[in-house]
Amino acid sequence: MASGTDAAAAGVAALGISGGEWAEACPPLRRNLHLLASDEVELAKMLLNEGQMHLFEHWPEPGVDDDKKKGFFDQVRRLNSSYPGGLVSYIQNAKKLLADSKAGKNPYDGFTPSVPSGEALTFGNDNFVSLEAAGVKEARNAAFVLVAGGLGERLGYKGIKVALSRETTTGKCFLQHYIESILSLQEASCKMVGDGYHTKIPFVIMTSDDTNALTIKLLESNSYFGMEPSQVKIQKQEKVACLADNDARLALDPNDKYKIQTKPHGHGDVHSLLYSSGLLEQWKNEERKWVLFFQDTNGLLFNAIPSALGVSATKGYNVNSLAVSRKAKEAIGGITKLTHVDGRTMVINVEYNQLDPLLRATGHPDGDANCETGYSPYPGNINQLILELGPYIEELKKTHGAISEFVNPKYTDSTKTAFKSSTRLECMMQDYPKTLPPSAKVGFTVMDTWLAYAPVKNNPEDAAKVPKGNPYHSATSGETAIYRANSLILRKAGAQIADPVVDTFNGQEVEVWPRITWSPRWGLTFKDIKEKVRGNSSISQRSALVINGRNISLEGLLLDGTLIVNAVDEAEVKLTGPVQNKGWTIQHVDYKDTSEKEEIRIRGFKFEKVEQLEVNYTEPGKHSLSA
């Protein structure tokens, strides 16, 4: 044991600080200096320089809790290495942002908002179809990044959000759907280019301490849902130090005085993680061109990916934010062009509660108002980004992935001198464009909400309180939106799909369409689907249709009940003629009913599988299902 202490003392002496004069002001630390390795001494010195003496004031004499003291520096080392610029930068950024917050400084002072330029797409028209084709062609040159650091607590679900069923007709979870969608894009892209080279699309998942082990377990126990394990890269984000007061004094953990309290920093960390991982340079060497970022529980997202990637490619956007039409004052951030009095411009997301006052303060007396389209001219940001890799790397070389931060302290009173509880700096993935030069091509792609956006984030109680006409963004609305989108897509492709009925689940009034769902390899683009819907097919409102296979076509199918079709890729299956059975009925479930699983309770319904027709085609060749 003595040799380790001697080595530490030698490290301190080598730094010329054996006397520890710099630590005079903090006797508890000075008494323990000889325990520290040279890098720990440097960290201690840095903390004192940054006004963090309180972290050591309770330290006892050497020989008491020495292991815990070393453990403290292990944590400081981690916090220092995981933040761009280290803890010095974090503390200094915090002091500035806390001072601005106390002074009530408006982050948009000096900026005038205007409507940015972008592309508004109409589902199914010729332009949409050609953009989808352009996007599929580009997909082999892309990498996908999923930010999945959150648990489902806000939803009333204890697991990780990506493990939640996207819909309960098949029970496939969000992560399975995302992986199958990427694999379908990969295959279609390579086939379209037709050079015989099978590119693998990289897939990065950003996890957190809360989700890392469970995400890996979900992947491993399901054989990565068909993706090669080498394609998937897990990047775990670290938390950041909590701040106790306006002087940015780091907060100690209430339960452990040798630990700094930490909280999540936000999904903006994804940029610094990608930068430090070396993956971006690797992708550049592989001649990849695009990085697509998406969040964990939007079950409709991949309906929008091919056409949006087509927009990026044809317009040459360095940054393309996916957006949906939003009603004025709807609780979703608006994509806005901001022009500063000094000439700077940026195209970024402005939160809905800041957009209206900003417009009113800059000569728009009606604030955020609907225009002649019936929607706000500021499209709704859905936090899905497509970045061009080359300019992205150049920008990150300057910033090291640091993203513009904000702080949101909860003060005890109007003097703003004390916090109710510790706070921390936060950052958001979509604030990346804030540091871009004016020459950067920043645009957006607007899609129909029904096609592209149905996030699952609110628990049943909160969703039931949403004002009538506004989106619930719950497990109930997220699942019913998938059936609605698939029904409308098939209707556009020429099938007769019955109108929905309106029902209420967990206090939320939703449209119940036929429960239609398909695997991504069946319907990746609208052109794919249109080619597989022929003849005069019809599906009744009480029906459910599950299509699992590539070459399955609807040719005069008359469905009234439940039909599940599974086919190997080499089987060509025609669904034709009437199929009638008692089907699956929808049962209401109360979210307080603990006899049901959480995953069902948060939806407010379950299926009673009374009768169904399930057919499996395991042999290649032509097959026909007909009555």
From TrEMBL:
InterPro entries per UniProt: Nucleotide-diphossugar_trans, UDP-sugar_pyrophosphorylase, UDPGP_fam
Listed GO MF terms: UTP-monosaccharide-1-phosphate uridylyltransferase activity
A Pfam family recorded for this sequence: UDPGP
Superkingdom per UniProt: Eukaryota
Entries under SUPFAM superfamilies matching the protein: Nucleotide-diphospho-sugar transferases (SSF53448)
Keywords assigned by UniProt, alphabetized: Nucleotidyltransferase, Transferase
Cross-referenced PANTHER family: UDP- GLUCOSE PYROPHOSPHORYLASE (PTHR11952), UDP-SUGAR PYROPHOSPHORYLASE (PTHR11952:SF9)
Family: Belongs to the USP family.
Function in brief: May function as the terminal enzyme of the myo-inositol oxidation (MIO) pathway. May also play a role in the salvage pathway for synthesis of nucleotide sugars.
Protein name in UniProt: UDP-sugar pyrophosphorylase
Organism for this UniProt entry: Urochloa decumbens
Organism placement in taxonomy: Eukaryota, Viridiplantae, Streptophyta, Embryophyta, Tracheophyta
